[in-house]
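[agent] plan:
  1. take the single chain provided in the ticket
  2. run structure prediction with default settings
  3. attach structure tokens to the ticket
  4. add a short note for the reviewer (M.T.)
[agent] executing step 1
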Amino acid sequence: MSDLFALPYPVLPHELSRYAFLFDIDGTLSGLRPTPSEVQINDTVTRFLAFLSQRRIPFALISGRSILDIDTLFLSHDVPCAGVHGAEIRYADGKYERLAICGSDVAHVWERLKLACMRYPALRLENKLISFAIHFRDAPELAAVAMWTAASLAELYPDTFAVQHGKFVCELRPVKASKGAAVEKMMMSPAFCGRTPVYVGDDITDETAFRVVNEMEGFSVKVGDEETSATHRLKDVCGVHRWLDDLMASAAAGCRVPAQGADKRSS
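[agent] step 2 finished; step 3 output follows
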């Protein structure tokens, strides 16, 4: 793991056309909200993604959200993305794939999960069809209950589900799904192949992606001050937005992001 305070600001030394950008959404491109439906996308993010599209620089969104939810949030149906922690992927050419998962197990787990959480109305359940999240942001005192419930169900269906922990959430995701695997697949696709990956994320769910990007000698960027395997760091979501603005301004000026001023902002 990287030293908590020694990670540098992500200065990209080459033209942006040499990179492929991969972003987590919640806690990275947008601030966390009590419910996913309350999240809105900042204008800087919208401008940056349009900036990349205009220059044919590949980018993808790698999220715990479903692809349907990502499309609703970004008002688009063609952005390359991986949803449900990589359980489903849509590539730049529109090709869609989803992990095969036992339908009867999915149905049984959802019914058991609803029954187990009936005693705790402060826990909010989210059904992503092939993955189930237990949110406890509004009731952090129920974290242990949520984690125990998820772990118990995963133990009953070990070939189908694994527990994925996140910020104020634990999730039963398909056992073979991970953001790291999604990044590997995306980077092997024609639109991304041969580029240097730049992955930005904030949560423990992003650590598998950081490790994959590190193996590819790319740029892994942690948002926040938690311990991480990423090689670079941005302080918070506002820091991400400033970095995106810097990238656009520097590209327009034909230079890289200035390191000296940026380092001060990331500390």
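[agent] step 4 note for reviewer: The helical segments are 43-54, 67-74, 103-117, 143-156, 179-188, 207-215, 237-253, 259-266.
[agent] ticket updated
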